[in-house]
Amino acid sequence: MTSQKASARAHTNIALIKYWGKKDQQLILPMNGSLSLTLDHFYTDTTVEFNSAFTEDTFYLNQKKLDAIKVSPFLDLVRQLNPQAGYAHVISKNHVPNAAGLASSASAFAALALAASTAAGLKLSRRDLSRLARRGSGSATRSIYGGFVEWLPGTSDQDSYAVPIDEKVDWDIEMLAIIIDRKQKKVSSREGMQRVVATSPFYPAWVKSTNTDLIAAVKAVKQHNLKLLGQLAESNALRMHALNLSARPPFSYFEPQSLVAMNIIEKLRSQGVCCYYTLDAGPNVKVICSTAESRQIISALSAAFAPEQIIEAFPGPGAKLIEC
Ligand code: ADP
Ligand code: DP6
Ligand code: CO
């Protein structure tokens, strides 16, 4: 009997310029490039053990046995790279709410890519890890790296991967996550973006304008221009959510409390505070701001949200191996 085990930690990332639509469902190739910030506060730890004595793949998330319906096909990709690897047991713990628009699938599949490939005896480059993570969940392709990360959309499995833009962030930028609802969303990211691509008449305009936003946002990161980056991120997020309203049948991830948070941020901005919001596929609002002004923003948000609903997150590191 042979057994090999490895554990990895990967952090979530929040897109400032969003991925919202695939040109290839199976390979997970996105319609457009995207830009994200990896966060220190939210992460996933995953242990993978390949053992020739195992008779099936098993998957435990937060100490509960779950169907390995998404994990098993992902492990098959690793087994294609090393046909000697047999079935695997996967034990994962999310330090992020599951499926609530806080990018649990990003940290999940980045951690799984690193843990599974290492346990299978492969030593993949970060580029190949990013390509592998992409096959589990598109946003995971960016969580291999820390700080600001760009996902180059590519045209094939070979050339669709992430690159670090500013990995060790040494300027004043952070994110406040406002936790409005930890519950699993009704429309998964996968289903939501597919519906939008298939039915929104505005989709071609999204791709065109997002490509333009991305070029400007990468420049803003390089220039450490928080205001410009925030403006681009907020407007790009609102366009993504407008697509959802324009789909058939239409859907929205906003909750009343999401709008309350957005209004507070807009009001602060009218008072001269540099803060902008973004939302992913869920009701939780993320605020882009500087640490210099974060106390003032938290204090304004406290009028509507409890202290435990407001989480301060800083730029975080890329995926790494940890002790089992
Ligand atoms: P989110 O906004 O949290 O990324 P998604 O709908 O994109 O929501 O993805 C959530 C899905 O990701 C879950 O339903 C589950 O299938 C998968 N997932 C979440 N955490 C893990 C994990 N630690 N290991 C494997 N898969 C996970
Ligand atoms: C709104 O990566 O979760 O967070 O590739 O189908 O697993 P799949 O979707 P996922 O979608 C993320 C969408 C987003 C924007 C983003 O992270 O770029
Ligand atoms: Co996701």
TrEMBL record:
List the GO cellular component terms: cytosol
Coiled-coil stretches:
none
Keyword set, alphabetical order: ATP-binding, Lipid biosynthesis, Lipid metabolism, Lyase, Nucleotide-binding
Q: What is its EC number?
A: 4.1.1.33
Is Lipid metabolism found in the keyword set?
Answer: yes
> Which molecular function GO terms apply here?
ATP binding; diphosphomevalonate decarboxylase activity
Domain Mvd1 C-terminal, residue spans: 176-313
Main enzyme class: lyase
Q: Could you provide one GO biological process annotation from this protein's UniProt record?
A: isopentenyl diphosphate biosynthetic process, mevalonate pathway
Report the residue ranges that make up the Diphosphomevalonate decarboxylase-like N-terminal domain in this protein: 10-162
Membership in a protein family:
Belongs to the diphosphomevalonate decarboxylase family.
Q: What name appears for this protein in its UniProt entry?
A: diphosphomevalonate decarboxylase
Taxonomic lineage per UniProt?
Bacteria, Bacillati, Bacillota, Bacilli, Lactobacillales
